[in-house]
Design goal:
The chain is built from eight helices and nine strands. By secondary structure, it is of the alpha/beta class. Strands 3-5-6-7-8-9 form a six-stranded parallel sheet. The protein has a three-stranded parallel sheet with strand order 1-2-4, with helices on one face. The protein binds fe (ii) ion (FE2). Fe (ii) ion binds next to loops.
Length: 245
């Protein structure tokens, strides 16, 4: 019974962020939400935790070679469906962007291939979660030269990348922003990612937080994370750039 009460206790822990910049809630796309009802359920939970605005960021990578035009069409359809569903309490579903994998098997060519960005030409990118086989300095530089701002998703989840590493130092010198996953802070991806997640925030290396919500399992973990005292304390102490998106 106590567990049940704890699980269902919600609060606005993430309200200062205003905006979630990273989730996979476009129904039926990649490994995210499987249908519109699951998307609505996840968005409801996000609203209850304080999010007012959400950007969908489907994967663009080797395993999920999504096509930008197709994604835009699916998003337009979803927006229409949500606008007629009478669910005014949901966060505003603002824009479609992408989470682009930079690795040897997949990379859009800067300036040639279309990419879906967050406002202000902010491109959310990620590395392999397993293999330290790529440090795409040239691609970073090309995008930066073209006026993009790069945001690296969940640096705490790359087991091969230390906070005090040369890679991190190089990326920071290039002006690359970091986005920590809030679920990391509740141990969703294990102890190491949790420790590193807090460290990236405490050292000021992470400018953004994202939920990376994929489905109800993630949304329910997000609710648990909102009830984590250490996370609540961190949210009071640190400010992030999410609300500017
Ligand atoms: Fe993601």
């Amino acid at each position: 019974m106590l567990d049940f009460l704890k699980r269902n206790k919600t609060n606005k822990t993430f309200a200062p962020l205003v905006t979630d910049m990273h989730c996979h809630l476009l129904p039926g796309v990649d490994d995210g939400s499987s249908n519109i009802q699951e998307t609505i359920d996840c968005l409801n939970i996000m609203a209850s935790l304080g999010f007012e605005k959400v950007y969908f960021t489907p994967h663009f990578q080797y395993n999920y070679p999504n096509d930008e035009e197709d994604i835009l069409q699916r998003f337009a359809t979803l927006k229409k469906q949500l606008s007629t569903s009478g669910l005014e309490s949901l966060p505003e579903v603002n824009l479609i962007a992408g989470e682009y994998r930079f690795d040897p098997r997949f990379a859009r060519r800067p300036g040639i291939d279309k990419v879906l960005t967050l406002p202000g030409k902010k491109l959310l990118c990620e590395f392999s979660l397993h293999y330290n086989d790529y440090m795409p300095i040239e691609i970073f530089s090309e995008y930066i030269k073209l006026g993009y701002t790069l945001i690296l998703a969940h640096p705490e989840r790359y087991p091969y990348m230390g906070i005090h590493s040369k890679e991190v130092e190089t990326m920071k010198q290039m002006g690359i922003f970091f986005q920590v996953n809030v679920l990391s802070l509740n141990g969703f991806y294990g102890d190491t990612a949790m420790k590193k997640g807090f460290e990236y925030i405490e050292t000021g290396l992470a400018e953004y937080l994202g939920t990376d919500t994929h489905n109800m399992r993630y949304a329910s973990a997000l609710r648990d994370t909102a009830n984590n005292k250490q996370v609540q304390k961190m949210m009071q102490k640190h400010t992030f750039l999410n609300s500017q998106l």
